[in-house]
Design a protein that fits this description.
CATH class of the largest domain: Alpha Beta
CATH superfamily of the largest domain: Peptidase S8/S53 domain
Largest sheet: 8 strands, mixed
CATH topology of the largest domain: Rossmann fold
CATH architecture of the largest domain: 3-Layer(aba) Sandwich
Organism: Physcomitrium patens
Number of helices: 21
Keywords: Glycoprotein, Hydrolase, Protease, Serine protease
Radius of gyration: 28 Å
Strand content: 15-25%
Family: Belongs to the peptidase S8 family.
Distance between the termini: 58 Å
Number of domains: 4
Domain Inhibitor I9: 108-172
Oligomer: single chain
Shape: globular
Number of strands: 42
Domain Subtilisin-like protease fibronectin type-III: 763-859
Length: 864
């Protein structure tokens, strides 16, 4: 008998249904193929290792099981006894879900799928126990089940089973941004201001939960939120997540922990069996996407400005599937995505993606997460996904598929510089979000090693300044303490928070951090401090400073300091400086090219797609978070990563969706990609940060492999002129195209047959053209649709990639208004030489009414 374990009522029946599954007439070999399920998450700047889920019992693990038969979003209403009205499914079931007969059909088909799952398990394992964690019904037809390896082998051979794969463990990967992006005087002003921007759009966030008490999600003083009939989600109630936590702004909140619990990693007292955020990351993401407008950001009694989400009036639906310290598990993540689509979210924000995938799979596009997201797009949900934090190295993008909007992280123009003025009147520049020393007086300097007695804990170096007990307080009181930011801060247990406690305990006037190499300086992550402090992150500046100190310190023959003559004062590092420059691609942001398989062969798909702000982003935090010492007890945090860039784009997408509710996910993505900025405010190319060997990154012109179409400009995206449309069947054709996947693999994965002549991958109507290996001459076409209110005449121009001759036909055309008015343009690309590196060009559609549409061209040319 197969037992059932659930943390969600929506997961299905709590007992195994009777009956036996029906065999499909598809070839048996197709049902036994191996698909990739090895997906893990990337939060902020974290670079987790790739790790299989541990076994909680001998030889028992969680397995993902995909079954024959379509999930709800691609069901055609054609099963006997469940016929319903097929057209509502072949078109858009989501559009018609409120109709009573459609709701009834969805409910019946969902029950049918769950019964099939349960019957299969009961039929195979009547005498041996197993535990079903979830039934997936909306974007996948399958289940997550606890099995022995022998049971998994038996299940994999059953004719109704498409694929069985062991689960893997997963981990998690602002104030100025609205002004920097021009929202208040731009798109917000067209939507009733900040108090109306994003009205009635639901952003689903799969993350670590939310702090419902945070002011970023409060409805106090807000225009009342009316119920939304299109959203069908629920709000869980728990001791730490009481009734009323969902207030209209927060429209839904659910948690998914069955897989984590079965693995033995979940502890309800530590991780909370509720949507409450015990980590901080989920609250940060939610506030960035749709937090309230004008919430004061206060740390250490200092106000750093007022925070706002990108779509301040949008609704937030939380799907907690990740947990502090342990991360999460793939079945929980898939279950969260499945439920979000079933609930009716408009945008799905995912700061997640595969990392270090196995090499025993075929197509990256047929992994289980991307298949689920394909069906989410089929349900008219725009999926926004983090590109990953593996930069600046190539082929590190962890968001693969063309149906997903993949986000790179940019560095905006907000900085927190600081200076130290030495007694010889020289000034050195540094960083540190910290107050100035009191008054205009100079304070004596003292090096940590000159003020310590003994070694203390062997796990720390005295220069780390982590142990107040080893300092001679009489020597340090009233002086600026000099400490070293090095190995133990980056890889060990030393923290800036303990440094602050040391400085306060010994009565120092402040602290100066120096580095032993430029490499360690590049790893410094500035956080707000309550004491005067500065970090000199350049090795040259650190050496100059220490040289000044030694020149003014008298030492005995044994090297012991006898007197101290060096003095200095610190500036105010809490003053924000805006440089006015356009975004740079952040050093950590993952780079293309995209890969078509887990052997890392290049794909004819451009990734990332667009760039959003992702460096030093202020957002909501939960004071109960314990895994980031810098912000323990705080309500706001400033963190970095493509995980931070993703909710920026998700929130901006919500504004576009509110303006154009009928637009498809592809149309929304196209509008943002084709109007993105590729030049800064002075007309110079956007720069990409690269490794330099020092604390300051090397800058070079950004390529499409760095930033996709460019830095998102939502004020241009709201008036795009033309869009590049693609629908579900276009993506099926892409999957079936040359050398991508076999027709059998596509049919088994998507329940949709390949067309007779699927063409090549580059035929997909994306707002880009990419050839991983252009041999000879290739011709592709792109079809544009005029989505504006008036007809327009366009001229097509382009810049050739190196060693490529590009031509277009026609080079000008007139197009009418409306979705039925389209124009197809053919592009011929001819390689003139081979090259070991990719080259890049750009195609521009210039409209007579002022619209400019640009798409990047990325070409690799190798030997035939």
């Amino acid at each position: 008998m197969c037992s059932m374990a659930y943390t969600r009522k929506s997961s299905g029946s709590k007992s195994c249904a009777l009956g036996s599954p029906k065999c499909s007439n598809i070839d048996m070999s197709l049902r036994r193929m191996r698909w990739v399920l090895a997906m893990i998450l990337a939060l902020g700047l974290t670079m987790p290792g790739y790790e299989a889920a541990g076994q909680s019992h001998a030889d028992i693990d969680t397995y993902m099981v995909l079954l024959e038969g379509p999930p709800i979003v691609i069901y055609k209403g054609d099963i006997p006894g469940l016929r319903g009205t097929a057209k509502y499914f072949t078109n858009s079931w989501k559009k018609h879900h409120r109709r009573a007969h459609v709701k009834d059909l969805v409910s019946k088909y969902k029950t049918h799928l769950i019964q099939k799952h349960d019957a299969l398990l009961k039929d195979l394992f009547q005498e041996k126990s197993c535990t079903k964690l979830y039934s997936f019904t909306h974007i996948l037809n399958g289940a997550a089940v606890r099995l022995t390896s022998q049971q998994a082998d038996v299940l994999a051979k059953h004719p109704s089973v498409v694929h069985v794969q062991k689960s893997f463990k997963v981990q998690t990967t602002t104030v100025h941004t609205p002004e920097y992006l021009g929202l208040p005087t731009g798109i917000w002003s067209k939507m009733g201001g900040a108090l109306g921007a994003g009205e009635d759009i639901v952003i689903g966030i799969v993350d670590t939960g939310i702090d419902p008490t945070h002011p970023s999600f409060s409805t106090v003083g807000q225009k009342p939120y009316v119920p939304l009939s299109k959203y069908r989600g629920t709000c869980e109630v728990a001791k730490e997540f009481p009734a009323g936590s969902c207030n209209g702004k927060l429209i839904g909140a659910q948690h998914f922990s069955a897989a984590a619990s079965q693995d033995g990693a979940f502890n309800a007292s530590l991780h909370f069996a509720s949507p409450l955020d015990g980590d901080g990351h989920g609250s940060h993401v939610a506030s960035t996407a749709a937090g309230n407008y004008g919430v004061p950001v206060i740390l250490n009694n200092v106000t750093y400005g007022k925070a706002s989400g990108m779509a301040p009036r949008a609704r937030i639906a939380v799907y907690k599937a990740l947990y502090r310290l342990i991360g999460g598990f793939i079945p929980d993540v898939i279950a969260a995505c499945d439920k979000a689509v079933a609930d009716g979210v408009d945008i799905l924000s995912l700061s997640l993606g595969p990392n270090s995938p196995p090499g025993n799979s075929t197509s990256t596009f047929l992994n289980i997460l991307d298949l689920a997201l394909l069906n989410a797009v089929k349900a008219n949900v725009l999926v926004v996904q983090a590109a990953g934090n593996g930069g600046p190295y190539p082929k590190t993008v962890t968001s693969f598929s063309p149906w997903v909007l993949s986000v790179a992280a940019g560095v905006d123009d907000r900085t927190y510089p600081n200076v130290i003025t030495l007694g010889d009147k020289s000034v050195l520049k540094g960083t540190g979000l910290a107050p100035a020393t009191k008054g205009e007086v100079l304070y004596p300097l003292i090096l940590a090693k000159d003020a310590t007695e003994g070694q203390g804990n062997p796990g720390f170096a005295p220069s780390d300044c982590q142990e107040p007990s080893i300092f001679q307080k009489a020597l340090v009181t009233g002086k600026l303490l000099i400490c070293t930011y090095g190995f133990n801060y980056i890889f060990g247990g030393s923290t800036l928070q303990q440094l602050v406690k040391t400085v306060e305990a010994v009565g120092a006037a402040g602290v100066v951090l120096v580095v032993e190499s430029d490499g360690s300086g590049s790893k410094f992550d500035p956080v707000p401090l309550r004491i005067p402090a500065i970090a000199l992150l350049s090795f040259a500046d650190s050496a100059t400073f220490l040289g000044y100190y030694e020149a003014n310190t008298k030492r005995g023959q044994n090297g012991k300091a006898l007197s101290f003559g060096a003095t200095a004062k610190l500036g105010d590092g809490q003053v924000t400086v805006y440089t006015g420059q356009a975004q740079q691609v952040a050093l950590f942001s993952s780079r293309g090219p995209d890969v078509r398989d887990f052997n890392f062969n290049d794909a004819d798909v451009l990734k990332p797609n667009v760039m959003g702000p992702g460096f030093l982003i202020w957002g909501a935090w939960t004071p109960i978070a314990i895994d980031n010492a810098a912000y323990q007890g705080e309500h706001f945090a400033m963190i970095s990563g493509t995980s931070m860039a993703t909710p920026h784009v998700a929130g901006l997408s919500a504004l576009l969706k509110a303006k154009y509710p009928a637009w498809s996910p592809a149309a929304l993505s196209s509008a943002m990609v084709t109007t993105a900025d590729v030049l800064d405010q002075q007309g110079r190319p956007i720069q990409s940060q690269q490794l330099s060997g020092g604390p300051t990154p090397l800058l070079q012109d950004a390529t499409p492999f760095d930033m996709g179409g460019g830095a998102l400009n939502i004020n241009a995206a709201i008036n795009p002129g033309l869009i590049f449309e693609a629908v579900y069947l276009d993506y099926i054709k892409f999957l079936c195209s040359a050398n991508m996947s076999t027709p059998g693999e596509v049919l088994a994965a998507t329940k949709t047959a390949c067309p007779q002549a699927p063409g090549i991958p580059a035929d997909l109507n994306t707002p880009s053209i990419t050839f991983a290996n252009l041999v000879g001459t290739k011709t592709v076409s792109r079809t544009v649709t005029n989505v504006m209110a008036a007809g327009e005449t366009y001229t097509v121009t382009w810049t050739n990639p190196a060693d490529v001759v590009l031509t277009a036909s026609p080079t000008s055309f007139a197009i009418g208004t409306g979705l039925q008015n389209t124009q197809t343009v053919g592009f011929t690309l001819r390689a003139t030489a081979t090259s070991q590196t990719a080259s890049f060009g750009r195609i521009i559609f210039k409209g007579s009414l002022g619209h400019t549409v640009h798409i990047p061209v990325s070409i690799g040319i190798k030997e035939p």
